[in-house]
Write a structure and sequence with these properties.
It is a single chain. The chain has a domain of about 120 residues. It is built from 15 helices and no strands. It is mainly α.
Length: about 350
């Protein structure tokens, strides 16, 4: 952060010396500072940096006619909308994604072969659809999400990046279908999402973020499997995530993307144990499953204690159960165990 702050100061000084120099004015230090602030959980600082970046791009290209600047501006507007979404300002997020999408579409009409512009259209359309679903406008959101999938499928060959987009879109479509009560269809979408990110990793996209995306997709599938009455397979899926995330956390102990993913995985493991305990014919309230569930929720809360300003959706687009919900689950497990102990006495 200190290095980026210094770079930003130098950019500002250069602007004063030569305000018409595009190579200097186009420096992205302010955006990088926003990204860095977001990664450590400081959404307020990130929002301020992104707004400053948006103002810079507007000054550089007031009419939005220069494609390279306009695309950067659209991406920045999308980052601002991401923060609105995380903070629950859904209507503001929808407006931001809509603005981003319209800008990307304008430039796609002028330069339809530009891959950067194509990607901006795909991501902004998907983000708009997701925000609409989160805002309760499910059918409208699914329309944009299916458009996103069509745009991805039109690309040939599908690069690892497009496969990651595909995985995210399948997950968002699945969430929309769940809200419509179409749980079997949602489960199919989650399975397709996992297959897409698995393919991306096999094709070479296996950096930290791609591994986190894989675990987010797998967690989502596991949760759907548990809801469908298959706790054994749900646990298998969660175990795959743990096998990736625990070593990642050891190597990256302060990485919030990993922390979010592992906290959610531990919560899922607890949910599986609760399901098994409830299915027990003896309804043994002090059974190992109740004890196991408590331990998993405690592990989740321990991970959450390392996260600054937790929010329901991470910078890797992972939807999670927040510490308050995990604490409630833990309290319920402890109550079940205490009740049985009282009955035995």
């Amino acid at each position: 952060m200190d290095g980026l702050q210094r770079a930003l100061q130098l950019d500002h000084r250069a602007l004063q010396i030569n305000p018409n120099s595009f190579p200097v004015r186009g420096q992205e230090s302010v955006i990088l500072l926003g990204d860095a602030s977001l990664k450590v959980g400081d959404r307020r600082a990130a929002l301020e940096y992104y707004r400053r970046g948006a103002a810079l791009f507007t000054a550089l290209d007031p009419k939005g006619t220069r494609a390279n600047i306009a695309v950067n501006a659209a991406v920045t507007d999308g980052k601002i909308a991401d923060i609105y979404l995380a903070d629950g300002q859904i209507n503001d997020a929808i407006a931001g994604y809509w603005k981003t999408r319209e800008a990307a579409l304008r430039h796609a009409a002028v330069d339809p072969s530009n891959q950067t512009v194509k990607q901006a259209v795909i991501t902004s359309t998907g983000q708009l659809g997701h925000a609409l679903v989160e805002g309760g406008r499910v059918d409208e959101g699914l329309k944009y999400l299916r458009e996103t999938m069509e745009r991805i499928d039109a690309e040939s060959p599908l690069t690892p990046l497009y496969k990651i987009y595909q995985s995210i879109a399948h997950g968002w479509i699945g969430e929309g279908l769940e809200r419509r009560g179409k749980n079997a269809d949602a489960l199919s979408e989650y399975q397709l999402g996992k297959e897409a990110i698995t393919s991306a990793r096999a094709a070479g996209a296996n950096d930290l973020r791609s591994q986190v995306y894989y675990c987010a997709s797998t967690d989502r599938l596991a949760e759907a499997l548990l809801k469908s009455g298959n706790p054994t397979e749900a646990r298998n899926q969660y175990e795959k995530c743990r096998g990736i995330l625990e070593p990642l956390l050891q190597a990256n102990p302060n990485n919030e993307e990993v922390l979010y993913a592992l906290a959610e995985t531990y919560t899922g493991e607890g949910d599986v144990s609760v399901s098994l305990a409830r299915a027990s014919q003896q309804h043994a309230r002090n059974s190992p499953d109740w004890n196991d569930a408590s331990e998993w929720y405690e592990k989740s809360l321990n991970i959450w204690s390392k996260v600054r300003n937790p929010v329901w959706i991470s910078t890797s687009l992972i939807e999670v159960r927040l510490p308050a919900e995990v604490s409630q689950k833990l309290a319920e497990c402890r109550a079940q165990r205490s009740t049985k102990i009282a009955m035995l006495n």
